[in-house]
Amino acid sequence: MADRYATVRDMTEGKPMKLLLGFSLPLLFGNLFQQFYTLVDTMIVGRFLGKYALAGVGSTGSVNFLIIGFCMGVCGGFAIPIAQRFGAKDYAGLRRFVANAVWLSAGLAVVLTAVVGVSCRQILTVMKTPADVFDYAYTYILVIFLGIPVTIFYNLLASMIRALGDSRHPVLFLVTASFVNIGLDLLFILVFHMGVFGAALATVISQGVSGVCCLVYILRSMEVLRFKPRETRPDRHFMHTLLAMGLPMGLQYSITAIGAVILQTAVNGLGSDSVAAVTAAGRVSMFLSCPYDAMGQTMSTWGGQHVGAKKLERVNAGLRDCILLGSIYSIIAFFVVFLFGRSLAALFLGAGEVAVLDRAHRYLMINSAFYIPLALVNIIRFLIQGIGFPTFAILAGVCEMFARILVALALVPALGFFGVCFANPCAWIAADLFLIPAYRYEIRKLKRLFSAETRT
């Protein structure tokens, strides 16, 4: 079996720390490259198109996360039953889940693109996007939303490959897409003078490239995903299970993003300088947060395979090791921001934007002081999803949403930009206060369930 399915990895055997590092490091590398080309994209916009174009692109960040995050969450949720079937070595069931995930994703792509494509202008208006950046924001987000089918295409295939224990190849494809994106950014903006439209178009095209690479790899190399007759037919039972996992994960992102949208509206009310500062600092934060994303994706696969194999004691062992890794990195990241935060923010702005740089550095310092709570959010939430309880991930998202709304309605009016800086830390702590006891409850529940199955 190991020879036939050499491109997949069973994580239910071996030392947890070694397996976690082996799986998460390629993911980290891929996330870093993804953020790298996002950083380059933002740098080119800020440096060559100006502060207002940068603020326009940045003002779409929360609504972008609301929709694109939903797509990513759904695709990640669809991969959980696949990981569980792989852990249980039920390869026929695995392929049925894959086929039905494709059917559902195709329908989601069509519906979501149609709905949000016609709503972009209204959304930006409701968010009180500043008039001097509105056109930039509208052009950028419209192109991104019209590329939703491409986003779903890539994320679904990459999630499937990772569910089978292969985190390396999606990274290689993402690296390829990163260079494509950077090249297209330079071509569209500096040569063809396409403005923010070119920046958005480059992002969509590059993601399509990585999706095609994933598809070619699956067709050529992953024997476990070679379908047999009748395995590709739509099935209501399989679709129900997929939706039960995918929709909660997608809604988790969207519910979290609702708070971010309301917070962004409050930031928009502070003016273009504040929007630009949050945009620049946010790009740096996203880069620094890549290890947490990799840890979360790793724990989702870890939980799914081990629950499928009914090895709960290894679930806890992996959690402890991953929290240790997250805590060590959080301390390192804080000192990086302390020493180089202002210089990193300056990559996206002209040297003369002193006031904007001051705000961006303050934002980074306050957020990085709370990176350990952020590590716990990603690690525990994705693990809960992987072991099959995505509803609790939604409730954690609700906690984050209310925390950000509270900051937007109370702290920002009272403290201005200083209040904005505490929005993320408050959200992370609120989610942790829910997630930690929720995880303990669900592990005890699974232990009782597995014990009852053993007795019968």
Could you please describe the fold and organization of this structure?
Helices cover 84% and strands 0% of the residues. It is mostly helical and 456 residues long. The two termini are 30 Å apart.
- Uncertain segments are 1-7
Number of helical regions = 18
Number of strands: 0
Helix content: over 70%
Percent strand equals: under 5%
Number of domains: 1
Topology (SSEs and partners):
Elements (H helix, E strand, L loop, with lengths): L15 H34 L1 H9 L1 H27 L3 H27 L2 H7 L7 H13 L1 H16 L4 H24 L3 H27 L14 H33 L3 H17 L1 H19 L3 H35 L7 H15 L2 H16 L3 H26 L1 H4 L2 H33 L1
Could you give a short description of this structure?
With 456 residues, the chain is mostly helical.
Question: Keyphrases for this structure?
Answer:
single chain; 456 residues; mainly alpha; 18 helices; globular; disordered N terminus
